Every structure is written in structure tokens, then in C-alpha cells.
Amino acid sequence: MSQVHRQQLAFSLDQPPTPASFPVDSIAPLPGLQLLRRPGVNIQSPMSRLAPTLRHLARRRFGAAPAAAPAAGRVHSVHTLPRSERRPMHSTPAQSNLNPTTRPHLLPEFSLKDKVIVVSGGARGLGLVQAEALLEAGATVHCIDRLPSPANDPASGFSEISKRARRDLDTSLTYHQTDVRNVGELNKIMENIADQAGRLDGLIAAAGINHETPALEYTSDEVDRMMSINVTGAFMTAQAAARQMVRLKQPGSICLIASMSGTIANRGMYAPAYNASKAAVIQLCRSLAAEWGEYGIRVNTLSPGYIMTQMLQSLFDDYPERKEVWPKENMLKRLSLPSEYRGSAVFLLSDASSFMTGSDLRIDGGHAAW
User: Fold this and answer.
1) Residue 6 and residue 28: Cα distance in Å, rounded?
2) How far apart are CA 279 and CA 362, in angstroms?
3) How do residues 307-359 score in pLDDT, each as one tens digit?
4) Distance from C-alpha of 157 to C-alpha of 151, rounded to nearest angstrom
5) Which long-range contacts (CB under 8 A, 24 or more apart) does 308-316 make?
6) 274 is annotated as an active-site residue
7) Of the candidates 306, 288, 293, the residue with the CA atom closest to the CA atom of residue 205
8) Catalytic residue among 175, 274, 306, 341
9) Are 48 and 84 in contact (CB under 8 A)?
10) How far apart are the C-alpha atoms of 326 and 337, rounded to whole Å?
């Protein structure tokens, strides 16, 4: 604030300033004061005592006609639009984005409009929640999972999300059934998606499993299965997507779902193969980012903390004491919800993270920061 503006506000708000307070010629217009002269501008202020002073300054500076003193304690409006002339609110993101009379998108770098994104492990849980967030940001989404079509399972919510995508969001959610270990089928699906859309902009590789067994009891088959899905599956899914991006000369963003368990050893949880698999995913991310950066392909990992998913609930059924202990182990003293990873999905797949690659975004409630 300039010296003149500080002088203008130095007097008591209870009384208008006297001529001796400061020279009239020295008054510079206060920020926003010009709005008082613009017709059709709706200005309301809760500081009712300030309104007479502003009008007094306006008369002295601009020669505005004097107005009757307002009643004390009222909130004053220079101009209020009739209710019939006010713009309606919009019930869906699609309506707001498509109606040109609404205010512009304030953060366009988060928009995924017209982009095509694949989500593996997208039939339920975290993958499906993030797929819905991508839809709401404007993307066309294809989900890959080994489960039978979730459209036949009302509990999954997939069918309702797919209907809402078409009805309200002007986009689509499509399901493809395959196992990420079936590399030939995986590549075929990616190629078909890219050919039909003429592009492939992003991937979230969320397919994965967890299995808890003490290290002294693990079998080689159990370790092989964990690694083949969590590591090789993530690698082959990313490879299949990147091949299409390179073929189409299409820059893109790939997010591999890792875990805080790839950085720490969870207290009281015996899952050495799972922890090792997620550590491998974090390192895989760095290596892929280094190789594919020249094609404009960014690769990052998202490392969640404990999430209340069906997988975790099954674990609590076997170890009920953990439901009480685990929330106390992070700084927020609670477990996370799948919905708390919606924003990170949009961030990592959009231009909002355009200079981010080879990085791990850890969202764990401060669990690993002790």
C-alpha cells in the first residue's frame, strides 16, 4: 500500500475525514474504487461502517452525487442483479466445461480433455477410483483387469461410473479383461486402443497383489508370483503403452503404483516379497524415465500409505489388532481412503506435472517421515 493510501485510511471510520486531514489534490484512487462508478457491478461488503467513507472519498475525487446516509448495521450493495438475470449453477463438470458463458477453467493444466488413458487393475479399488477421477477431468479411460467384466458386479460401482461418464461427462469408460502377465494380449489391447483413438496419452499401472508370509516360510513359487505381477506386470504394461506413444510420436505420462512399503519395512508386517516388489517398481520408474525422456514420456511412481480397500480389510480379518494399531503409526492417526488419491492421479497424468519424471510421490500421512 502506498503512503497516500495509508494516509487515506488513517482517519477514524466513525467520522468522514475533515479537509485538514490531508490535501484533496493528494488523493489517489483506492484499489477497487473505480468499481463504484461501473454500472452492473455487484459489490457487497460486510464492513458496513466503511461504506459511507468510501462514498465520501468518491464524491471528493470524482464528483459523484451525494447519496443518503445508509442505516447503521446494514450490508450495502452498489448494485444487485435481479434473481432472474443471475447465471444458473451447473450440476456436472461437463455442463460447466461445455457452457461458454461460465467462467473459464482456472487451472487448465489439470485438464485431461480429449486425452486417452489406460488404467490397469481398474476393475475395483484404487484403480477404479482413480479412473473415475480421470473421467471427471475429461479423459477417455480404458480399464484393464484380470477379473470378469465388473459391469456384472453392482457392488464394484463400475457400471454406474461408466453410465455417468456417458451421461454427464461426455466421455467413456471401457473395460478390457486380461492378465498383465499375458504380454501378447496386453500389447494387442494397447495397440487397438491407440489405433481407434489415434493417440495414447497416459497409463496408470495399478494392478498388483499382496501376500504376507514370514521370510523363513516363503516358497519360490510365492515369490515368483508376487514379482511376476507386481514388477514384471508393471514393466510390461508400461512397455506396451510406451511402444504406442513412440509409434504415434505422442508424448505421454506413465504412473506406476508403488507403495510406502517400497521405502520402509512396515512394523509388525511380514511381507518381504511385497516390499521388495514395490522397491523394484520405484527403481524401475527411474530407469524407464531415463530411457523414455527423449520421447517426451514421463514416468513417475505413486506410493500410498495404508488404504482402506478390500485387500486391507481382508488383512484386518486375519489380524484384527492391526485395525487399532496401524492408524496410530502415521502423523494423522488414521488410515487413508481411496478417494484421497484422486487428485494425485490427475496431477501425475496431466500437464500440471509436465516437468516431473523419475520421481516418487509418497502420500502416507507422514508414516515414513518419523
Assistant:
1) 11
2) 13
3) 998 878 888 998 999 999 999 999 999 999 999 999 999 999 999 999 999 99
4) 8
5) 308/335, 308/336, 308/337, 308/338, 309/125, 309/126, 309/338, 310/124, 310/125, 311/125, 311/210, 315/210, 315/212
6) yes
7) 288
8) 274
9) no
10) 14
Residue with cell 477497487: 32
318's CB contacts (< 8 A; 6+ apart) are none
Q: H/E element holding 116?
A: strand 116-120
pTM, 2 dp: 0.73
CA-nearest of 219, 122, 220, 211 to 165 is 122
Question: What is the side-by-side strand order in the sheet with 116-120?
Answer: 173-177, 140-145, 116-120, 202-205, 252-257, 297-304, 360-363
Alpha helices in the chain (DSSP H): 3-8, 50-62, 93-98, 125-136, 158-167, 183-197, 220-227, 233-247, 272-292, 310-318, 322-325, 342-349
- Using DSSP's 3-state secondary structure scheme, residue 60 falls into helix
Cell reading at 111: 485438464
CA dist 27 and 3 (Å) reads: 11
Q: Where in the chain is the domain with CATH 3.40.50.720?
A: 110-369
Question: Which residue is associated with the grid cell 520408474?
Answer: 285
pLDDT of residue 149: 83
Determine the residue type at 235: F
Residue linked to cell 479537509:
19
Active site residue 278: yes
Name the residue among 112, 120, 111, 170 with its Cα closest to residue 142. Answer: 120
Tell me the average pLDDT across 361-367.
Answer: 98
Grid cell, residue 182, equals 499375458
Pick the catalytic residue from 113, 115, 249, 278.
278
Q: Is the pLDDT of residue 306 over 90?
A: yes
What CATH number does the domain located at 110-369 have? 3.40.50.720
User: 3-state SS of 121-185?
Assistant: CCCCHHHHHHHHHHHHCCCEEEEEECCCCHHHCHHHCHHHHHHHHHHCCCCCEEEEECCCCCHHH
**Strand, coil or helix: what is 90?**
coil
Say if residues 256 and 299 touch (Cβ distance below 8 Å). Answer: yes
Predicted local confidence at residue 216, as pLDDT: 98
Q: How many beta carbons lie within 10 A of that of residue 176, not counting itself?
A: 19
Q: Under a CB-based contact definition with an 8 Å cutoff, are residues 141 and 167 in contact?
A: no
